[in-house]
């Protein structure tokens, strides 16, 4: 790539761009990433040192965005079941994050979420999550517990099982969308609708 085609990006922008390109090619080398992003290879090495550090930064950003999407869904408002449906909708707006999370060899891992949670607890923003109580590190479990308390979610379903079901159903819906064309808004909307329908059908309280 000619010099005049190079972009000047700060560290945060580089991480965001790397996340996008890793979703398209998880095995991309530093050379391939620099070419896709439109910066010199030395720029990436200067900011991150090696590929592992860059991938780790992208994974942390993905975990942060996942958490931000959950909070954007207003988990404390309305019934627990309605909050779960909003969470599904918000997470579906992050196809790159979901791709890196549900890949055969995921880049966003439990360690990424643990690091993001620790970062949040140590920062000033941690107070915004205080309402989650003991389930602060697993907002899905907190929302499900809330739903069981308000009668919108079946009390007979173990909270941990329900959280895993929601998580995996979001992944299944996303991967189906990818298989038919993640850039197709109609297919994406259908996948989200099916995901929400599955969550509602499985977890809704029988008397709800």
UniProtKB/TrEMBL annotation:
SUPFAM superfamilies: Homeodomain-like (SSF46689)
Top-level taxon of the source organism: Bacteria
Pfam families named in the record: TetR_N
Molecular function via GO: DNA-binding transcription factor activity; transcription cis-regulatory region binding
Entry's transmembrane regions: none
DNA bind region: 29-48
Domain HTH tetR-type: 8-66
InterPro entries in alphabetical order: Homeodomain-like_sf (IPR009057), HTH-type_TetR-like_transc_reg (IPR050109), HTH_TetR (IPR001647)
Keywords recorded for this protein, A-Z: DNA-binding, Transcription, Transcription regulation
Gene3D superfamilies: Tetracycline Repressor, domain 2
Name of the protein described by the UniProt record: Transcriptional regulator, TetR family
